[in-house]
Amino acid sequence: MTVPTLPEGSEEKRESLIKNIERNSETIILQGIEHGRAWSIAISEDTGKMTGTASEGEGGFVVFGACVLD
């Protein structure tokens, strides 16, 4: 399974392989490694709100968002 890494409609298509998927009664967690960076996304099943992180030896960042149905 992969996760897209660029906005829909972008000319260049990129995907990142999901190495691990965990699910409990409230949260889906996706994890992977890409270009020497570890990433993780936690998605609330109730609200669709999500938090994502990416990190490497020199630093990292956190993003917030929501999964919505079209």
Task: Report on the architecture of this protein.
This protein is an all-beta fold. It has one domain (2-66). The chain is built from no helices and seven strands. The chain has strands at residues 2-4, 15-17, 20-23, 27-34, 37-44, 49-56, 59-66. The strands form two sheets. It has a five-stranded antiparallel β-sheet, with no helix packed on it. The two termini are 21 Å apart.
Number of domains: 1
Mean pLDDT across the residues is 86
Q: Helix proportion of residues, in percent?
A: under 10%
* Count of helical regions: 0
Q: For the largest beta sheet, what order do the strands appear in spatially? A: 3-4-5-6-7
Structural class: mainly beta
Low-confidence stretches: none
Strand content: over 45%
Sum up the overall morphology in one term: globular
Task: Tell me the major beta sheet.
Answer: 5 strands, antiparallel
Tell me the Rg in angstroms.
13 Å
| Strand/helix succession | EEEEEEE
Distance between the termini: 21 Å
The total beta strand count reads: 7
Short characterization:
The chain has 70 residues and is mainly beta. It has strands spanning 2-4, 15-17, 20-23, 27-34, 37-44, 49-56, 59-66.
Question: What's the topology here?
Answer:
Blueprint (H helix, E strand, L loop, with lengths): L1 E3 L10 E3 L2 E4 L3 E8 L2 E8 L4 E8 L2 E8 L4
Antiparallel strand pairs: 1-2, 3-4, 4-5, 5-6, 6-7
Keywords:
single chain, 70 residues, mainly beta, 5-stranded antiparallel beta sheet, two-stranded antiparallel ribbon, globular
